[in-house]
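seq as requested:
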Amino acid sequence: MNVNIVDLVVVLMSVVIGIAADRQYYLGLDKPGHQPPNRWSWLIWSFSAFVEVATFKGISDDWLKVLPLATTPIACVVILSKVWKMKEDRWDGALDKTIDIVSVILSFAAIFIWLYFKEELWAHVMMICAVPISYIPQWRETLKVHSHSSVDKLPWMLWTIMDTLNLILNLHRINDIAEIPYVVVELICHASVWFLISFRRSA
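struct tokens:
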């Protein structure tokens, strides 16, 4: 595997910015007036994040491209530890509960397809489809809030920058076009929340 200093710098920047975003989100959970997220939803997101990265690793043997993505499930578990202590078990509605159930089904289906049929690509495709589905509650919640603070905005901006760096890295070191969709979908989802928060803040 060919490694150069530019790629290493991009990876390092992506990891540092991603950790900074995770830290800002973690600290924001204690913000006055912040509604505690559902801990079961976070448990599901943490699990699905591991499956997403694992299936990406299944189609890419380039550890440099996997490394920045691998920080996400680790951060999810750290955030989950705090969310779990908030003891919020209520879903905002039947749609959010259904989305969580669908995320679990897709994650287990992807694992089954990956391990039983040895179809790494199709397992990864299934998890790519699960990502925007899991964002539906976040988009709905963002649109319901009439005004967001800069504290709300910062993590999503940093995650968007992180995803942009990951996309640059993947394009620069591309081995297979199948490596690109997951990074693009993550970028679109993070950037869309950043846009919605910025729009609602200025509205």
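The chain has eight helices and no strands.
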